[in-house]
Amino acid sequence: MAKNSDPPPVSTAADQRYMDIALTLARRGLGNVWPNPAVGCVIVKGGAIVGRGWTQPGGRPHAEIEALARAGKHAKDATAYVTLEPCSHQGETPPCADALIAAGVSDVVVAVEDPDSRVAGSGIGALKKAGLGVRYGVRQGAATEINAGFFSRILLGRPLITLKLATTLDGKIATATGHSQWITGDTARAAAHLMRAQHDAVLVGSGTALADDPMLTSQLPGHAQSRDLRIVLDGRLRLSAESRLLKTARDIPTWIVTSARADSKIRNNFKDLGAMLHEAPVDNAGHIDLNWTVQLFGTSGITRVMIEGGGQVAAAFLKARLVDRLAWFRAPTILGGDGLPAVESLGIKDVGNGPGFIRESVSALSPDCLETYRVTG
After folding, report:
1. Angle between helix 290-299 and helix 148-156 axes, rounded to 10 deg
2. What is the number of alpha carbons within 13 Å of residue 338 lying toward its C-beta?
3. pLDDT at 11 exceeding the cut of 90
4. pLDDT at residue number 1
């Protein structure tokens, strides 16, 4: 990420307060603005907010354009608070930096610079060149976390990957007979649906798709399911044409990541049903190459993926060191050794070699709890 040569000035309490509002607005875009970042903007004049905006579904219009439209003539000599450096390049829309300058804004407070090489400090540079006062680095940590998926796509070529687990206290996702509904309660399931809505895509393996026949959509009131992307790893195309995923593939985006060994007739049938198929390379054991797969996601513009199961897929992503965040829902019950584990064998012989995470939060979701973690390093 580009760095400005000048040290960031000390932010005021007002800067932090208004940036917090902009960050709240930015979170509204999570899950429905990819391939763009989720950005929030507030325009302040005389101690009052005269304009608010956040990136709209599909990534257009940008937050700054929305806020300026609401501010109208009041934008002149106002201060704009933006959670990500305003863009400075001509894309599908004119540069936001130019729009701020043209509106007569006097100052711009930026949370974090944009790592995209088309911006990377040039947006801040354009604002300074035009004579605007610029302060940056306000609430940088929070702004970086909101767009961790966008940053990952730009810097690593792949999306941020969250592994979501819903288990008993002893890490089981089902009984020995496969019964799993419902381990967690209504509050935890509602929180999980919110997480689905805040990710660009939800991913499962074919085993989970066959066992649970899920929809993999967010059931939040008012949520537009047409923006949900469902992804199934299915190397042999075992998914049933009668599954809910394929029956709704024309209306809700559905990707199947498969392999060359998949039957061509089934492949064509899936396509006819509306699914998009991606042929991935496989290893000697016939397992889909996950590194290739996540790079495909990044190239396609996906910034945030949530893995929902099952145990084999969870283990595969953990072994490949591709899990960035853990969201672990725990129910206050125990199933014992014959229950099905949330994570299958990782083949680890030394405790110190296991994937490491740092716990960030614990939330009570009566009667369950949610623990969130980020990967170490």
Report:
1. 110
2. 5
3. no
4. 45
In DSSP notation, 123-149 reads HHHHHHHTT-EEEE-TTHHHHHHHTHH
Mean pLDDT of 329-336: 95
Q: Is 56 exposed, middle or buried (0-12, 13-18, 19+ CB in 10 A)?
A: middle
pLDDT band at 2 (very low <50, low <70, confident <90, very high): very low
Residues 14, 19, 21, 26: what is their CA dihedral angle, to the nearest 10 degrees? 170
Q: Which residue numbers are catalytic?
A: 64
- Per-residue pLDDT band for 9 (boundaries 50, 70, 90) equals low
Q: How far is CA 226 from CA 59, 82, 247, 250, 277, in A?
A: 15, 28, 14, 10, 18
∠ CA 204-205-209, nearest 5°, is: 80
d(CA 308, CA 296): 19
Q: Report how far Cα 228 is from the mean position of its chain's Cα atoms.
A: 12
Length of the chain: 377
Contact call for residues 156 and 291 (beta carbons, < 8 A): no
How is residue 367 written in tokens?
Answer: 């009667």
Give the distance, in angstroms, between the CA of residue 231 and the centroid of all CA atoms in the same chain. Answer: 14
The greatest distance separating any two alpha carbons of the chain, rounded to the nearest whole angstrom, comes to 69
Q: Identity (one letter) of the amino acid at 219?
A: Q
| DSSP 8-state symbol, 55 | P
Element of type H or E holding 45: strand 40-45
Number of H helices, E strands in the chain: 12, 16
